[in-house]
Amino acid sequence: MADARHDLVIIGAGPAGLSASIYARRALLDTLVIEQGAFGGQISLTATIDNYPGVEETSGAELSQRMQGQAEGFGAQFAYDSVEAIERTDGGFVVRCTDASYESTALVMASGAVPRHAGFDGEERFAGHGVSYCATCDGMFYRGKRVFVVGGGNTACEEALFLTRFASHVTLVVRKDHVRAAPSVARELEENEKLDVRYLTSIVSVDGDVALSSVAFRDNATGETSVETFDEGGVGVFVFVGNIPSTQLLAGLVELAPDGSVITDEAMATKTPGLFCAGDVRSKPLRQVVTAAADGAIAAVSASTYLGKAVES
């Protein structure tokens, strides 16, 4: 038996889940949001957000807090728990968590994604003490140290710029001959004296005793390798090479795209009636805070329509 029944359960309290909870409560749906990590999801770890419409500049943590406060103001309920299984029932869904189980007639999956690993030797061994996936979380530990950032996308470039606040010098390691960043970000890379870019380069391994002390590189044009050594703990590697959608709980309930994300229609609906997906877990061309929030709003309105309840204007 479940501990409680709700019109709608939302799994994940990132921008998509929080936006969905706001719109669901405006439709007067009995709404529960379940989150196992930080409220706000990955954006809570982002130092600066300056492309969210109407907000010139804020931190991810502050924007997350505002979203959560707004949702709570509308009457959304929140549970801090880890979802272990989702079961389809005649009446909807049962969401089984570590501490409790919940029934709902409709479900919005806004579980987001987790950082993708680069795959170099030593990455797993030194994760958390030399290799990191969060500049905001760990940047301060590399004050005055040498830092390498793996990745050539917008996130990698922005995080590399952020890390120049702490590190003695930052090198962006890009396996191709160009970065895939917005022109304004690319210009900042060129103008920052504490940052350089190594194109056509990959990190093949990291090593050390207790902490990181060496990084091996491959020249992707020639195939040649080289090793740079540092004082023990004097170097850090930050990896930003994309994310893996968190779809493990949805086996058999949804269709997946080749990249592992969930295929939905424009209403955020999946092949399972009453199950909607929003945010980074969903197959889409652009993953940003604004698109996640839009997904969440659409998913909640679609859930309201599915439940036969109208959204307040």
Following the backbone from N to C, one meets helices and strands in this order, namely: EHEHEEEEEEHEHEHEEEEEEEH
What quaternary form is this?
single chain
| Gyration radius, in Å | 21 Å
Which consecutive residue ranges, at least 5 long each, have pLDDT under 50?
none
Strand content: 25-35%
Helicity range: 10-25%
Query: What is the tally of beta strands?
Result: 17
Largest sheet: 7 strands, mixed
Number of helices: 6
Helix vs. strand class: alpha/beta
First and last CA, distance? 36 Å
Described by the principal axes of the CA atoms, the overall outline is elongated
User: What is the mean predicted local confidence, pLDDT?
Assistant: 93
Identify the notable features of this structure and list them briefly:
single chain, 313 residues, alpha/beta, seven-stranded mixed beta sheet, five-stranded parallel beta sheet
Description:
This protein has 313 residues and is an alpha/beta fold. Strands 1, 2, 3, 4, 5, 6 and 17 form a seven-stranded mixed beta sheet that branches. Strands 8-15-9-10-11 form a five-stranded parallel beta sheet. The protein has a three-stranded antiparallel beta sheet with strand order 12-13-14, with no helix packed on it. 43% of the residues are buried. The protein has helices spanning 15-26, 60-74, 135-138, 154-163, 183-191, 289-307; strands at residues 4-11, 31-35, 77-80, 83-89, 92-97, 101-109, 113-115, 131-132, 146-150, 169-173, 195-198, 201-208, 212-219, 225-229, 235-239, 243-245, 275-277. The longest helix has 19 residues, at 289-307. Helix content is 22%, strand content 29%. α1 (15-26) packs parallel to α2.
